[in-house]
Amino acid sequence: MSLAVSILGLAFLILIHEAGHFFVARAVGMSPRKFYLGFPPAIAKVSRKGIEYGIGAIPLGGYVKIPGMHRPAPSDVDVHLGREVERKPELAGPAERLKRQLAEGDMETARGELAAMESRLPSSRGIAELRDGLGADAYWRQRTWKKVAVIFAGPATNLVLSIVLFTVLLMGDSFRVGVALAANDDGTVTTRIDEVLEGSPAAAAGIRAGDRVVALNGRRVTGAGLLDGIRDAEGAPVTLTIARDGERITVGPVTPERIGGRNVLEATGRSLEVTWDVTKRIVAFFPGLVQGKGADQVSSPIGIAEASSNALDEGFSEFLAVLGLISLSLALLNLLPLLPLDGGHIAFSIVEGLRGRSLGREVYERVSMVGIVIVLFLFAIGLSNDIGRISG
After folding, report:
1. 343 in any annotated domain
2. 124 SS3 class
3. Overall domain count for the chain
């Protein structure tokens, strides 16, 4: 059950990402053609004001179709109308004229030629695709700031959600013994005590910086498990087993102190600090990965679903915290300047704005191939790590 909930949580993160694209596109005058819960093919669908809303058969995330993401190219005529031309040879002449007009950049004449062809192919999906690409609301025709706003809205929505989730969690009551735990390079907390707060229960019990917590109430724990155990004790005394100078020492009972919930402003401020700190760690991870460091920390969707499922087993607060971290990671990953990621589209939009004209479809396709190879490479590493971990 927890795995199903965690998968739905991941699907929700992708859905709101697409919702960001959808609503901003509508706000700036680019009317999306489709908005789906899940991916097509459709189980159910309905059209309202020229937009098709539906539920897709693949229940992962969402799907938004924005018209004319790329400037129509002559090759698009063959892709979208090739079969119709084969069935109706009389369309060969208009199709060749349409390709020539697209190659010359004569979009207005091309629209007229396409309209004439549409009268012979009234229900052609290929005609509709080309018409969207030549329309006034096509993405590639828009001003640079509009294109950047629409694409950035997806990662921005994930970023805002992570801040909101962290804020909600920070507004709740919590308990502490007054220690700060050291962290690994990937940001995961360890059981080694980095600092002991003066006047805290830990300080009163004789715990020192450099100690390593082996067990909580007689049970071995990880860094995250230690923090969870103290919180779950809800103020009840706990006993810690400490490793110090090659010896094991039992400390306790230590009574955690209650920390009152923060107000909205305080929690939001602290949430922004946490978000910034995690962002720096994630950004620093990528250069290390290029140097061959940290590859064992990459996970595929399988590992991510497993981690969120494990967090849900420990408690709903842990699940929300992990969901916030995944949402933040999703935002940052999508902002990498690689096609077909959002960051790649933003970079290309800026380049096109500086050039004053659109780049050709072939440029997009070549650069996209590089991005796809890199993304698939990361996926393969993550999948290998997950399979190795699951198989023991």
Report:
1. yes
2. coil
3. 3
